[in-house]
């Protein structure tokens, strides 16, 4: 994964100021960036660009940094879906000329184009998914792919953005443009920042929003009523074009996570139809996933003679996950991704302490296929909630409702109301509002492909996204697009049932297993800052006590609290209290024996009937008369 820092000052800066800011930034980067990463440096006394990336590009044909003449292109991701004729420098020159080069890209992708030391342009993708954060302080505007080094560079310290953490608590990701670190924000969808250096030194920096999510969505929504076959043709063409684009950027086989569900099956069918059969990999923590994936591969072999590689593994196998304690697993994941990862990954094996210098294989993920199936829609019977109610209920589900602090919920509901209000203002209606929320919140900020170079999300091809908004809600509920395209591209798979979340139990580790109970109990004692107050502590202790006694509490409460507590340890160290083991002793203590009630109390059930009540009153009168 690449790292980029770029800064532009309104005036020249003393060398001591530049050195101090860089040292603060480099200290944080040194915790995650191996010394083997390749380094590129550009700049002067009023600007600078630093890019770090693995030295070995592996099978990738696209350079992270490329220079031709005065033009330098810094690619933040892969330009999947774009016209890459002429290579990175040609794409950079088109951006500098003002072209919307990102219109057809499959997010995430960002591009920084330098015209010597005179001009620059930085383009966010249309969904705003590429991890480029920005901030301003002391006349300096800076950009970085990691928010903590950016805050250190600009502000000299790192503090939590409490609004961002409130979103993370309830949604499982940082909402909108919010960041885990104060003084920084994510670049908006379609945002373009341009700068021009003045003759006497210093930069004039401007920002504008070009082609963005709203344009993609409305291009589909306004086309409602088109023939279904036309929509299918457009969706299929987008998937095929994505496969062909990746083949131009990567010279090896693609890996696809093949589950038993509908989304990965459609991508597999499109890759095979395009003549690019992938390697398959299946996580069989849920055994049904492995069974169906094996059957799909067998059918391919028998019907087409295709003998594809198929690897099966268990991502959450307890023996692998619990080999590293919960505290260390959490800290590594937070450090590697600068706090931006779902807490559900705490039940996966521990990540490496630093970014990998090994080239990663290109892979496809079926994320975003939910846009074509009404995944977040309310039940289609009875008194259904409004689209706004349904969208909020789905998004605000990272913790159970009873576990969230009331004030946090109210503020986050207001933020989501504003997002949905904007969707209505641009012309969306009915259940498409729910799909819009899923796209701009869950896919933009939660999807893990934003954190990994080479993980491609074909269902985010703008043509495919537009096609989903051209479908009616009924067509989505009926899975019309998936069913028709699989029948067209891989008819032999059409009758194989899909696996759903209710198909069977998972064998993956639980967050409280291993040292989980003791670790979370200690965090209840030590993490006392504002961030941990976003989750009701009694709810955490209740869930923990259930786990300690062999029960199955809702894992969301414990995972989210663990994430917030350890983030608080790092971002708000002044709020950390000494460890006492008091909570652990309390929740693991043997429950008191049930108190035996007097016979008269145990007979009170008699009064539950009218006759019994009359008899009870009569007996009581006679007893008192003695």
From TrEMBL:
Give the superkingdom in one word: Bacteria
Transmembrane ranges, per UniProt, are 450-471
Q: Which UniProt keywords apply?
A: Membrane, Transmembrane, Transmembrane helix
**The name this protein goes by in its record:** Asparagine synthase (Glutamine-hydrolysing)
Organism of derivation:
Micromonospora pattaloongensis
